[in-house]
Amino acid sequence: xxKDLMEEIIRVAVExxxxxxxxxEGDIQVEHKDDSSPLTEADRRSHEHIVSExxxxxxxIPILSEESADISWQERKRWDEYWLVDPLDGTKxxxxxxxxxxxxxxxxxxxxxxxxxxxxxxxxxxxxxxxxNGSFRRDYDGSEIKLTANNNLNTNKLKIVGSRSHQSxxxxxFVSNFQKYEIVAAGSSLKFCLLAEGKADVYPRFGPTSEWxxxxxxxxxxxxxxxxxxxxxxxxxxxxxDSVLNPYFIGMRRYDETVVNHFKSLVFGSSGI
Length: 273
Prior knowledge:
Elements: H1 3-24, E1 30-32, E2 38-40, H2 41-57, E3 63-65, H3 73-76, E4 81-89, H4 91-96, E5 102-109, E6 112-120, E7 125-130, E8 134-139, E9 144-147, E10 158-163, H5 169-175, E11 181-186, H6 190-196, E12 202-205, H7 211-223, E13 227-230, E14 249-252, H8 257-267
Parallel strand pairs: 3-4, 10-11
Antiparallel strand pairs: 1-2, 4-5, 5-6, 6-7, 7-8, 8-9, 12-14, 13-14
Helix pairs in contact: 1-2, 6-7
């Protein structure tokens, strides 16, 4: 991705975040989708802005967003390149007003995230990544640092990132493999960003996620030197099937065979969802 295009995508995501914050600072009205997941006006406004702007910037690239996910597999499977958008990841965190929600825009090429932007509007933080230039964290004031995540893991004192909103028996079994560990609680795609910054080591996911939940964050982590594997030990990929649900997966700031084997032993042969 060119620098100019990246800056345009950042602009769009920040503007979407500004729209979200206007609602965040007032009374939040919550509806529910058919699957009982929460939906707010902030989700809609962010989605509408991002899709409208992306169509202006790259009219030739199709868009798949959580709030317009009814595009058929017959159409999607012809896409070699597309934008994958989660206009408000962490709606539950948004409703709780804990600040741990994000705006996510990823560019997918040949089933792989090649560029991604994650905005944390309540913290004025931007994470940006592409496969040519790496991963960066930028404050809204413009100060920026490059992220390098792949220092050796200390499996005797792992920092394992988990969700504030989701827990499972599989997660409890996974952490029991390690004598000493620390749970780092975080919401939304912020979990990938913590790994990319080296603030956590491992993110095992044993609960439901969709492809728009993970693509931008995965790009940030991988471009910083980390890895994300599915339940069969393959790189987590996109737009390979009719369903947009992810399998179980594990993100690590550096590959560690012992950690991967513990993960695979729990979910081997499982499709995740």
